[in-house]
Amino acid sequence: LAEIGSPAWGATFGQCRVMPDLVERSDSASSSSGANLTGDSASQPSVEAGKAFATCPIGGLTRFGEEQLVQLGTYLRTQYVEGKSGGALLRPTGPLQDELKVVSTRTKRTVLSAQSLLRGLFPEVESAVEVHPWTQSVLIPNHGRCDRLRQLFFEEKRKWEATLLPTSTQRQIDRMGDPARSLRGLGLQLPPGISEDFYKDLNHAGHELVDVTLGRSIEELRRLSVGPLLAEMQHELRAAAGEQSTLRISVRSAHDVTLTGFL
User: Fold this and answer.
1) For site-directed labelling of 242, which of 21, 99, 206, 258 has its Cα 20 to 30 A away?
2) pLDDT grade for 128, boundaries at 50, 70 and 90
């Protein structure tokens, strides 16, 4: 695979928006993009603050990915703002403060993903994205919130790695797995030297590691990994159904491991 940041890498994966770093804030404040920040939330860089584009880092959101999310937001607007799905949930002029909730993990690509979707959903207003510190997030299996989850996770990870993989292979999975999957996701050819069989093994090993450490065979691990998020979603749905909440749309921008727990 091309060296990260090289011309070959840039030619393959395109360009990503250069976003300022997320900055931890300990005081209650508002970011320049209008997000209401409380406690240890991070101030989010606005899309306007990142107008320049450069070669994508590993794990970056490409310009094409941004466009896809804007298109998704536009589709959601036709369904839930303009009411083509049978009823409008939000007003075209923009949501009131408690009608829309958008939460992201503290990662540039997930924050930018949420902002891009909102540009399509509400192009006339700049809606806020809540960005919580990792220690508070329920959007991922959060080892920092639960000692038992951390214990089970690393027990399963060590067992799986010890039986299947030498250390050198683990490093190859970490470094090559996501770029190789990205190539395939974009419909591109694998680079010379990476056979189809090797790609299949690499892809399988990466998914296997995630499945094992998120509790495929251990119910307690599954419940601790995704249970807090499910409980939060259940609370929102019940409150809305019982007319105890004005929340109409809840959006979460997170990671593949977030979905793995559900699956």
Assistant:
1) 258
2) confident
pLDDT at residue 213, as a whole number: 87
93 or 211: whose pLDDT is higher?
211
Which residues, in sequence order, are CB contacts of 25 under 8 Å at separation 6+?
37, 40, 41, 42, 43
Percentage helix, strand, coil for the chain under 3-state DSSP, each rounded to 5: 50, 10, 40
38, 17, 12: which is closest to 2 by C-alpha?
12
Cα–Cα distances (Å) from 58 to 109, 186, 188, 248, in that order, read: 11, 15, 17, 35
Q: Which of 208, 109, 123 is nearest to 165 (CA)?
A: 208
Question: 131 with 33: CB under 8 angstroms?
Answer: no
Q: What tokens appear for 69 in the block? A: 């999310």
The pTM score is: 0.78
Tokens found for residue 219:
């119910």
165: left (phi over 0), alpha (psi -120 to 50) or beta: beta
- Which two structure tokens, joined as six digits, stand for 173? 């999975």
